[in-house]
Amino acid sequence: MVVRPDHQGRGVGSFAMKWGVKLADRLRLPMYVEATLPGKRLYERWGFQVQEIMPFDARDYGAPSKAEHYCMVRAARAADEPVQ
């Protein structure tokens, strides 16, 4: 999922995350994402934890910054945990 920079901070990402997290919780599934720094902050609010930082430097491909990518996981909810 990517939110255009001029639309970030307006709840677009949170709206999509609410839908995805609710579905994953209902199905008791873990979730995996790869995020850049702005996305990392959003995913952490939804319970994702960094598992690894990918050795990637976007400057090698013409980007203005390194743009590290974070591999993040949100564990499946146990059957006795409340569904969001």
Account of the 3D structure:
The chain has 84 residues and is α+β, with helices and mostly antiparallel strands. Helix content is 30%, strand content 20%. The protein has two helices and three strands, in the order H-E-H-E-E. It has a three-stranded antiparallel sheet with strand order 1-3-2, with helices on one face.
Compute the gyration radius: what is it?
Answer: 14 Å
The number of helices is: 2
Overall outline: flat
- Total beta-strand segments: 3
User: For the report, how would you describe the main beta sheet?
Assistant: 3 strands, antiparallel
In short:
With 84 residues, the chain is of the alpha+beta class. It contains two helices and three strands, in the order H-E-H-E-E.
Describe the secondary-structure layout:
Elements: H1 12-27, E1 31-35, H2 37-45, E2 49-54, E3 69-74
Antiparallel strand pairs: 1-3, 2-3
Which descriptors apply to this entry?
single chain; 84 residues; alpha+beta; three-stranded antiparallel β-sheet; 2 helices; 30% helix; 20% strand; flat
